[in-house]
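User: Run a structure prediction on this.
Assistant: Running it now.
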Amino acid sequence: MRKNDQQVQVKRRTNFKLFPGSTAIPLPVYREFVDMLYSMWLPIFGLGVVFIAVCILAAFQLGEPIYGALAAIGAVTIFLRLAVVRAYERAAPVRHIKDLRGWERRYAIGNYASAAQLALLNVLVLAVHDPLLQLITVSLIFSFGAGVVARTSVRPKVCVISLLTATLPTIAALALHAFGPHSDGLHMEMYLVEALLVAMITGLSLQTVAHLYRTAVEHHTTKHDLGQLAKLDSLTGLANRLSLRERFKTSITAASRNRQLLAVHILDLDGFKAVNDHHGHPVGDALLQQVARRLEAIVRTEDTVARLGGDEFVVLQTGLLHEDEAKIFARRIIRQLSLPYGDDESITGVSASVGIATAPKQGVELERLLACADAALYRAKTSGKARAKFCNRDDEAKCNIAA
């Protein structure tokens, strides 16, 4: 499969809807959102400790062992949730959408479990008449709701299910308790007002979730798009020098780890100036775009094509076992870029000259490799069109002088 076809498929995969009715977001933005879920462990720990303390207090206050059991379950849940957070930190960065969805599910299950335990605590406490204890447990609902909206609104499905899991049983328990046989004045009215208050806060929280999610999507998508624009050549859509530098760091690290070679190919077009002079700059720009597409079509997914400016391009070729692979690839570049251009293939006489430097032979710094490859490119152009030259000792000496 050609690389440009693969890039189209990747682009289609990264803009997706996680569930019906949600906003489609780019994969890097989704990755940021999942990172946010796992970035705040302290609220999970803090609310968990408070929940356990209230359960123990209820056990002593009401003399029922079920609250002690609920405290133990809460402790296990918090321990497991923090363990999942730690596991995610060790696994980061998570790159594949399938893995990200798995981590989101793990976080959601923990959140749902905490919400269900909190709802159960309120249902149990509201089954008896202890206004002070009920005040504490219902207050936990408000704390949980505020925290879950703040932390998980970037994943609205998780947020909404967690919120409703905690609040709906509590609202029902408050309403049932209001009609219980109690002689306190305004007992029914006060508990119904409290049930209505929890219901109203829940409704307002749901609206807040929708607003926060839309805002987060707009902000992070814009940031992602601007970041992409800053790393792309505006004419060809290829990587620019900034993006080339970032990808080189990743590629050279992988090459060192796997004991492989990395080749830096610098190339420019023979006869490009004549095209600009005879056909004009718009035709020259169109030709550069065709060159970009041809280069993308012949490189592998793990390789990088960049445009430095004018008619100068760079290809990072990774995973080499021998320099001969770089030589064969350079010849393929020359062959592909020497074919006629234009819709009617009317532009002929354009070819490419290539200079090659390899890491670690010529070094492991991008700027040095570019300088060595550029010196080899100069020799290739002076020896005739459509040539490829490896960096030699004289070229390296020039790089050392330049450094």
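The longest strand covers residues 261-270.
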